[in-house]
Write a structure and sequence with these properties.
- It is a single chain.
- The model is unreliable at about 1-10 (pLDDT under 50).
- With about 425 residues, the protein is α/β, with parallel strands linked by helices.
- The chain has a seven-stranded mixed beta sheet. The protein has a seven-stranded mixed beta sheet with strand order 8-14-11-10-9-12-13.
- Helix 3 (about 40-55) crosses helix 4 (about 70-85), helix 11 crosses helix 12 (about 315-330) and helix 14 packs across helix 15.
- About 40% of the residues lie in helices and about 20% in strands.
- It is elongated, with a radius of gyration of 24 Å.
Length: about 425
């Protein structure tokens, strides 16, 4: 054994050694906290070992994840950093990567349309990243494709509701399955400051149970509990110096309102500030809606002195085009574009983290945003995570707020590394 190989072994935690010793079933699961070392052991040992063990045998290798780009980022790139790009290639246009001399098919599983690419395959090795984010129909098909005597699957994920289909699968006693539950504290290599910061971000929310303790926890009660418990600690009267401004527009339906919300970002996306917000009754005609928004956009520019993007709800392209033309005619200092409309829960999780780390502020005159954050709750009847949207809370304002910051989620995550400043 070389010194480098010895060093690699010494880098493993007790929990990772436990997986190496015991993960010898058809299904091998690691579900639990984020950043706890689940993927590191797979990049360093599991994936190379499984592929080489089956090299030359009949069957196909698959690497599944939320999307092709997520697989490249979460798995392929770390593999290349560990083993080099001679042994690990990028994913090509045919969704194939070369790993240790074997072809590995890399597919996203967030949509049922991916099923057709797997149908008929006999899988000898399957690695499944972020399995709890996958489509259940895809999962049901893939289960039947591990049909060889030596077929095996390793999968990782962060827990969700106890009613999630993956939790039910793991709990079955009739399967050949080895399952580990991981907490954040199972990774002894994390800096204490990182653990403390992540704990602070998620404390008092379902994400503390899931991403820190690794528990399958149902979403219930108030969503933004830290804000609801002490809104005054997040409310300020004057905005700090801003690097950029963005506006989100949510177009209302039958029971809701149109909503505009402007946010600002401090240097390096360290903090986010809710600057302005307005709601309009959906009974207004398109011309009045356009007039109201151009007046709002003009006010935001005049008040904060920065040109900005307007991000509108892509579910209403006709209204969006109307807003675009109206802004051009009025000479508004804004470019209008579709909102990304990332998953609601990703947007919620981001805002919870910002609130937990004291990096989001609301100007005191934004009463509707203050009320919306205080009253937002999880749907008590939903089996999976779902924000209550029955007209009893101001979802329109929350959607418009989220459309304003969702393009900058990664930037805000990086901004957390900057030193805290007084606001």
């Amino acid at each position: 054994m070389t010194n480098q190989e010895t060093d690699n072994i010494l880098e493993f935690s007790p929990k990772q050694f436990e997986y190496i010793r015991n993960a010898n079933k058809r299904w091998n699961a690691k579900v639990g906290a984020t950043q706890c070392g689940k993927t590191y052991i797979d990049v360093s040992w599991t994936i190379p070992y499984r592929i080489l063990e089956r090299k030359g045998k009949p069957g196909l290798n698959f690497l599944l994840g939320v999307s092709k780009s997520a697989i490249q980022r979460n798995i392929i790139k770390p593999l290349q950093e560990k083993w080099g790009d001679t042994l690990i290639s990028d994913i090509n246009s045919q969704n194939e990567a070369k790993m240790f001399g074997e072809i590995v098919y890399c597919l996203g599983t967030e949509k049922a349309s991916q099923v057709s690419k797997i149908r008929g395959a006999r899988i000898k090795y399957l690695y499944w990243d972020e399995i709890c984010e996958s489509n259940e129909e895809v999962f049901e098909l893939v289960k039947s494709r591990l049909s060889l005597p030596y077929s095996t699957c390793d999968f990782t994920g962060n827990p969700k509701s106890p009613s999630h289909f993956i939790k039910k699968f793991i709990d079955r006693e009739d399967l050949d399955i080895y399952s580990q539950s991981w907490t954040l504290y199972d990774n002894p290599f994390l800096p204490k400051t990182y653990i403390d910061e992540l704990t602070k971000e998620y404390e008092g929310t379902i994400y503390f149970n899931r991403y820190i303790l690794g528990e399958w926890k149902r979403a219930e009660g108030i969503i933004y509990k830290k804000f609801a418990d002490n809104p005054k600690s997040y409310i300020i009267d004057k905005a700090p110096p801003l690097m950029a401004v963005e506006v989100g527009i949510d177009f209302g339906g039958n029971r809701s309102k149109h909503a505009f919300t402007a946010v600002g970002f401090t240097m390096g996306y360290r903090d986010m500030v809710v600057l302005e917000s307005q709601t309009i009754n959906t009974m207004v005609d398109p011309d009045e809606l356009n007039l109201q928004y151009t007046q709002f956009a003009t006010m935001v520019y005049n008040k904060y002195g920065k040109a900005f993007y307007t991000n509108y709800d892509s579910a209403e392209p006709v209204l969006g085009r109307g807003i675009t033309l109206a802004c051009i005619k009025a000479g508004c200092r804004t470019n209008v574009r579709y909102a990304l409309k990332k998953s609601v829960n990703e947007r919620i999780r981001t805002l919870i983290g910002l609130l937990g780390s004291n990096r989001v502020w609301v100007l005191s005159h934004c009463k509707n945003v203050i009320d919306a954050l205080q009253s937002a709750v999880w749907n008590p009847k939903a089996l999976n995570d779902e924000r209550l949207d029955d007209g009893s809370t101001d979802i329109d304002t929350l959607d418009s707020l989220e459309y304003a910051y969702e393009r900058y989620i990664v930037d805000l995550q990086r901004g957390a590394l900057l030193p805290t400043k007084e606001n």
